[in-house]
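Dear colleagues,

As part of the handover before I leave the project, I'm documenting each prediction I ran so the next person doesn't have to rerun anything. This entry is a single chain, and its sequence is reproduced below.
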Amino acid sequence: MRRHADDIPRGERGLLTAYWALSGYGLRASRALAWLGTAMVATVVLLMAFGIAQDTPKQTATGTVPAGGGEVTFTIDKDDPKNPTGERFTGERFEKALNITLNSVVFRSSGQDLTTTGTYVEMTSRLTEPVLLGLAVLAVRNRVKR
């Protein structure tokens, strides 16, 4: 009833409402797991549609060799990831997107070359999905403790 009280600040009320909606005050693991699954599916779809680069940018090395010998200087350059064109929903892109999403649940970076949109999608999922996993774990812990 605290989230319905009039004297509670708006921010706290919003936080309590979100806690209730996402995990039923830490008592409903199924609700938290359903939200986690929904967030993961949304992340996979967004990465497949906008986040994974069309091709993995190749590294190129250029250098100069002095005529009389000496040091060789190489410059390693890598192109920026390009947005995909054509078919976006393929098995290969699904596998990459799923790998990135599963890594984001446990705070790991995928190491994939992502577009700018993909980078923001991954950052958002690395923030929200572990929170939902934690809410599910807390709900299971509360059920076991009883």
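Residues 27 and 142 are 7 Å apart (CA to CA). The radius of gyration is 23 Å.

All the best with the project,
I.
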